[in-house]
Specification:
Helix content: 40-55%
Distance between the termini: 39 Å
Number of domains: 1
Strand content: 5-15%
Number of helices: 14
Length: about 350
């Protein structure tokens, strides 16, 4: 349940940038921040001012009205054609047997869903633990508590599906410490606001480059680490099937689970149908026995994560983040054949 939830927030700022973000858990350490006073460019200040204005405007709306407003924004972005070719290509890859009518309906619904979740993200400043609990229904909570009783922490692996920010908040609101691996935003004003929203909800931020040192500490203190692991990992990833096609996938979630011996869960936060804004937050333990061959174990566990996410996406495909070029990087053998 990694909270790479900057995407919905940044949707209100710059939709194209939001579509190009990715989250990794196996990135090199980030350089230490400079002691000098930060300077923000005029463009970043203007971007942040727009975001805060939208946040305030959406926050004062009744929740249902904000939800409908978000859906209308999503439809408007769809009409502009932003990322439409990418969405269409991804849907055709994932659902080759579906009709053109089904594909179009799902595409429009995906834009509406992203707009609604952007509005939900902008309203996070109004939510406290009680409000999050009221909006979430959990499944597998007893199994998660049993896993924590082992004292080795827990790793939660999710994808860009439903509302991954609410997923992390649902854990924190129930008094379970959670840290989420996120990507640092280029606009530091936006980044600081996002971190403030997460802290208000009890979610600790782990920047990608900090993961190698901070993830073990959190797990040793019997905390929870959330990771989103379903975006294109380029040539540094491993290729596992996703909707029947090899997809470059980050090794981080499986590596952490295997090397640190932490129980690992496959998790989602699916938006429930109806007028109320509510989510089903569900986690299922992924049991595995390491063979001693780390490379093969990582591949097998990563493939299992992808398989479980695929099953969830098939249940509600309009809630997946089809705007990212998931299959952009091709396996070496395919690249060799194209030369």
């Amino acid at each position: 349940m990694n909270l790479k939830t900057d995407a919905p927030y940044r949707l209100s700022l710059n939709f194209k940038n939001a579509m190009t973000e990715s989250t990794v858990a196996d990135s090199p350490p980030e350089p230490a921040p400079k002691a000098a006073k930060k300077r923000h460019s005029p463009a970043h200040r203007a971007e942040f001012a727009l975001a805060r204005s939208l946040e305030r405007a959406v926050s004062v709306l009744p929740e249902g009205a904000a939800d409908r407003f978000g859906a209308r924004v999503g439809r408007a972005i769809h009409r502009l054609g932003i990322r439409r070719e990418t969405v269409d290509e991804n849907l055709r890859i994932a659902f080759p047997d579906k009709s053109a009518e089904w594909l179009e309906k799902t595409r429009v619904a995906a834009y509406e869903h992203l707009g609604r979740e952007a509005a939900a993200m902008l309203r996070l400043s109004k939510l406290d633990a009680r409000a999050v609990i009221a909006r979430t229904v959990t499944h597998g909570w007893d199994e998660l508590k049993d896993a924590l009783s082992l004292g080795r922490g827990v790793i939660l692996v999710t994808g860009h599906y439903g509302n991954w920010e609410i997923a992390g908040a649902a854990v924190a609101s129930r008094n379970v410490p959670i840290g989420a691996i996120v990507r640092r935003q280029g606009n530091r004003l936006v980044d600081e606001r996002l971190q403030q929203l997460r802290r208000n909800l009890g979610v600790e931020t782990i920047y990608q480059g900090q993961a190698p040192s901070r993830v073990p500490r959190i797990l040793r203190s019997n905390g929870v680490v959330g990771i989103v692991g379903d975006q294109d990992a380029r040539r540094s990833g491993i290729f596992v099937p996703f909707f029947g096609r090899p997809a470059s996938t980050h090794r981080g979630p499986a590596l952490f689970a295997i090397r640190l011996g932490a129980p690992v869960f496959s998790c989602i936060a699916r938006r429930l149908p109806g007028d109320e804004v509510r989510y089903e937050v569900r986690g299922t333990r992924v049991k595995f026995e390491p063979t001693g061959n780390v490379d093969e174990d990582v591949r097998a566990l990563t493939a299992e994560f992808a398989l479980r996410l695929e099953a969830e996406v098939r249940a509600a495909p309009e809630q997946y983040f089809w705007f990212h070029k998931r299959w952009k990087t091709r396996p070496p053998e395919e690249r060799a054949g194209q030369k």
